[in-house]
Amino acid sequence: MSLPPGTVPPAVRAPVAAPRQTLWRWVGGVHVVAVAALCVAAVVIGAERCEGFACMVAAAIWLAWAGASVLVMGVGALAWWRLRRGPWALLVAGALAVQALTALWLAAAWLASRAA
């Protein structure tokens, strides 16, 4: 079988990711960025002091943070499950681990503060 000059045989071409795989890679990338944003927000919110009515506002902000964290964790778990293996799955799994450790650390800090 003779190929025209400059063409690559089909067996040598690099595999192209399926459109669904590309979609889940994007979702995984968004998850990683969202986890970074949640970590930054946790540091900023945690540094705020509350006095009087400001404590109510801080509680509402933490509640919103917790809800967003659960949503982001669900999206990340779904992306990790769909990707299953490869570098993108490892990246998403690492972000899920960071997110879980952050949540555990904040829960321990909350219990230790006697606010519980």
| Main sheet properties | none
**Which descriptor suits the 3D outline?**
elongated
- Termini separation (Å)? 75 Å
How much helical structure, as a percent, in the residues? Answer: over 70%
Spans of at least 5 consecutive residues with low confidence: none
Q: By helix and strand content, what is the structural category?
A: mainly alpha
User: Radius of gyration, Cα only, in angstroms?
Assistant: 22 Å
Strand content: under 5%
User: Number of helix segments?
Assistant: 3
Average pLDDT: 80
Listing every helix as H and every strand as E from the N terminus to the C terminus, the arrangement reads: HHH
Structural domain count: 1
Number of strands: 0
Give an overview in words.
This protein is mainly α and 116 residues long. The protein has one domain. It is 73% helix and 0% strand. The chain has helices at residues 19-47, 54-83, 87-112. The longest helix has 30 residues, at 54-83. The chain is elongated and about 80 Å long.
List the helices and strands and how they pair.
Layout: H1 19-47, H2 54-83, H3 87-112
Helix pairs in contact: 1-2, 1-3, 2-3
Summarize the structure.
This protein has 116 residues and is mostly helical. The chain has helices at 19-47, 54-83, 87-112. It has one domain.
